[in-house]
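hi! just following up on the protien thing from before. the input was this:
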Amino acid sequence: MRHRLLTQPARLASLVAALLAVAGYAQAPPQAHLHFDSAALAALQSKASQVNDVTLDGAVLKLGLSFMNSANSDLTPEQLDALAKLEGVYVKELDFKKGSAPALSDAVLAPVRAQLKAPCWSRIVSSQSSGAETDEVYACTDPSGTIHGLAVLSRQPDELDLVNIVGSIDPAELSKLGGQLGIPSIHISHGKSSAKPPKAKKGGQ
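and the predicted 3d structure came back as:
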């Protein structure tokens, strides 16, 4: 009997983990969390007229979700359900004075793109205008096809937006959360996307 009682907690923990995985609440892998702190981005950031950073995870994210889930919240049930799946929200927005922005070359984005590699990450949307505007959307999935993270790279002549959403949320759900918790408004249709983060208070990630 003593031996059985000692092994019960471990067996219970395994059962709970299995149930959470089946329910879709498995924790995202480390690769789903990107890093926006490269030397190339730091050099570019020093030239920006405005830098907006949003970092929400852990207790801060839970507090925000608790507040938004209050009786006074005007969010729809679909939005609340999608928000509950989030593990982290990370946004970096660099604004430059019109006509004086440095070259937002592929070399600047290379450190971020280097993290968006298989087997976790794959690009699901890529669009480029006749000018310097490009939008890219990536998804981090596991072997079963479950999404654990999304990334958006949006480059315009005078602005660079980098977004990382960690959690089991798909692009359709993400598009419903624009403007909430610093999440940008993202619209994806027919292979094209547009992303625009809401203005946030100046800070650092």
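Residues 27-196 form one domain.
The beta strands are 50-57, 86-95, 121-128, 134-141, 147-156, 159-167, 185-189, 192-196.
cheers
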